[in-house]
Amino acid sequence: MKCFGKGIDKMSVLVTKHAIKRYRERLFDYSSSSERIRQLLREIVAKGRPVCLRPNTHENCYEIKYRGISVVLLKKKDDLIVITCLGDSKYRNWIKQKEANSRVFQSLRYGVN
């Protein structure tokens, strides 16, 4: 992965408990062990492609996607830290539609723009 300089194979990939929790919630996988989910998230980082640079003050936050599943990670020196799982494409489209419908409802109900 070119956006990580010396290559991902020389970097350690750490996974937060929050990322594991979000994976379970957003992919509805409550049966896999935490270690199995950790392996899956590491695979997404290792085999995925950068989608975009996520906003933060240090410009070291990336969205990575593999097999339709997106994660957000921070690059810190020789470590890549998976901080959250955004879910698969189907989940993300559903949540975007839900948020759009909520904004329309609020606008109609309360006259808020």
Elements, N to C (H/E): EHHEEEEH
Q: How would you sum up the global shape?
A: globular
- Helix-strand makeup class: alpha+beta
Q: Major sheet: size, sense and barrel closure? A: 5 strands, mixed
Strand order, largest beta sheet? 1-5-4-3-2
Count of β-strands: 5
Strand content: 25-35%
User: Rg from C-alpha positions?
Assistant: 16 Å
Distance between the termini: 42 Å
Uncertain ranges:
none
Give a topology summary.
Blueprint (H helix, E strand, L loop, with lengths): L11 E4 L1 H11 L6 H14 L1 E5 L7 E6 L2 E8 L2 E10 H22 L3
Parallel strand pairs: 1-5
Antiparallel strand pairs: 2-3, 3-4, 4-5
Which descriptors would you attach to this protein?
alpha+beta; 5-stranded mixed beta sheet; 3 helices; 113 residues; globular; 42% helix
In short:
The chain has 113 residues and is an alpha+beta fold. The chain has helices at residues 17-27, 34-47, 89-110, and strands spanning 12-15, 49-53, 61-66, 69-76, 79-88.
Could you characterize the architecture of this molecule?
This protein has 113 residues and is α+β, with helices and mostly antiparallel strands. 42% of the residues lie in helices and 29% in strands. It has 3 helices and 5 strands, in the order βααββββα. The chain has a 5-stranded mixed sheet with strand order 1-5-4-3-2. β3 and β4 (69-76) form a beta hairpin. The N and C termini lie far apart (42 Å). The relative contact order is 0.18.
